Amino acid sequence: MSIKWKKGFDPDVVFQALKESINFKKMVVSDSVEVNENMSTLTSMIEFDDDIYPYRKNQLVLESFLASAQTKRTRQNFENEINKKLSDIKVEVGSLQEFRLLTTISIKPPFKFSDFPIDDCSIRFIEGPFPKMYDSRKDLLKNDHRKTNDDDENQYCKVIVSTTSPGPRKALKKCIDALDLLRALLSMKYNDSRENFLNSYACEPPNMRILGKYATLHTETGESVPDLYWFNPHYVKVSPFHIVTKDESIIKKEINRFFSQLDKLKVKVEDRKKIKRAMIRFLYAYDHTDYTSTIIEGWGSLEYLVLNENEFNTAAIVRRCSLILAKDTLKDKLYEQHMNSIREYRNRIVHDRELPEASLIVCYQLQRIFYKIIRFYLDYADEFDTLEKI
Fold first, then answer.
1. What is the pLDDT of residue 198?
2. pLDDT digits (tens, 9 = 90+) for 59-107
3. pTM score > 0.85 for this model?
4. Distance between CA atoms of 171 and 367, rounded to whole angstroms?
5. How far apart are CA 247 and CA 244, in angstroms?
6. Cα separation of 271 and 84, whole Å?
7. Which residues contact 352 (CB under 8 A, 6 or more apart)?
8. 370 with 188: CB under 8 angstroms?
9. How would DSSP label each residue in 348-359?
């Protein structure tokens, strides 16, 4: 496996700056701020696989640069070092192991979903406390300095996500991604039914399915993986979302049908991944309590989903979404007005940081459009070779 440099960058310029900032004989950094900035820029120039977390990317670049600095300190040496490390990650020694992620989600218990499959993971909502075999989770959280009194453990649904992986880091990402895909669909499809839609408090995010404060990773026997527990930096306590018991079976069927249809699309695997990445990006936008950030990032997720790689024309996204959403000429014109209204709203926020009063309504308007685009892809993508041709 070899790294790829993104187009439009010149890594040699950054390499030279790094060489001038470090005394390699004594391994002394002359300006740590400058080095950190250059390392961050260097990291952004490399196209990494999606299964490598951002913090791991920074770590890989730093380790590879320092290792290459022991010899010729050339770009080729750096590439050799980082390719070697990436190969070690890809070919983790050992057979597949079973891991389980434990966390909470802001749905009012009980919510009786069990063995729910998404992307090689099984998601299970449980009633009551976590099984005793996972008591090591309590010890981990007890020692965390970020712990506060507003613990959600007893108010939210508890979730166990199971998967197999050659190593714990990949298992952690697989589990969180699978749970985020489920949250994304629940958010897009059922957010409109939230109570007090127009009178919601600004302190709550538009998405009511928020992950709890902590996620811990465990082995098959229940032992915790101490270096891999996840703290949600954007956590905010929200009122648990209530799902009526009689609706649970309907919701489960709809979710099963959605992901089954997505996984069976005949377009390229990379296109299916793009749809899932867009859903997760959109979800994170709606986890914000700042509605301006939600609109900016939500619009960016829509651009990522709808526009081709080399398109940066905002008029193109309005035109394409309007055509996709419309079933007749009148609706085409109406959707075009909706899209232009959201685009203009987003531009006012970006350029003037103006916060008009109707921001939450715009959040939900954008969300409905995004979900309809996703549904269109699921219903019609098989008529095209790639998403770019839609």
1. 46
2. 788 888 877 766 666 788 888 888 888 876 665 545 788 999 999 988 8
3. no
4. 30
5. 5
6. 28
7. none
8. yes
9. HHHHH----TTH
